[in-house]
Design a protein that fits this description.
The protein has helices at residues 36-39, 82-103, 117-128, 175-178, 181-187, 205-218; strands spanning 10-13, 22-28, 50-54, 58-59, 65-66, 70-71, 79-80, 105-115, 135-139, 161-167, 191-197. It is α/β, with parallel strands linked by helices and 219 residues long.
Amino acid sequence: MTTATLSLEHLIRPSNITSGKAPVLFMFHGYGSNEEDLFSFAPELPKELCIISVRAPYPMQPFGNMWYAINFDADKGKWNDDAQAMLSRDKIKAFIEEACSTYGLDQDNVTLLGFSQGTILSYAVALTYPHLVKNVVALSGYISPSMLPDNYRENDFKDLKIYASHGSVDQVIPVSWAQKIPEFITDLGIEHVYEEFPVGHGVAPQNFHSFKNWLVDKI
């Protein structure tokens, strides 16, 4: 399918559903990558899903893209540009609505799949706008409360489901950051699965099969 001209660059694999509105999976890549990265998962994922892999809005030099800037020279270690992250959060929200309308997708069956910085943004979108998101597959990331609105706890999370996983020897995002996720989302009453795999900052084959099985059960 030729991609329409929407607010964010993207790749799309159409659903094999021939009638009615298809469920949709939006993919959000990590820092310094692009929309082709996670799209490599598409051939192995359920054919009824329309898969849309999205390019982050901020280009980097000499190549790649980011959802928000990270200052690696900060005095106390790296820090995130939270204001830019929240702009991306809202760009994603608008893009989801735009894509569902343009491509005739089921806006009640939306899944977000993120990796690393894309996972951080997926959490931010889902926890800020839970009425838009049914499922989140959160790979190698963490929840950043500073990217959420002050009143996020007032949101209704009863229909949101989350699969989270992390590499136990991740050298980029410490597994200790991810280990805070279950308590955080349990406190919000969100149904979830959390798993760790003996890998670094990546997705092991067993991790892929695990989230795929979880996803098949949820869509």
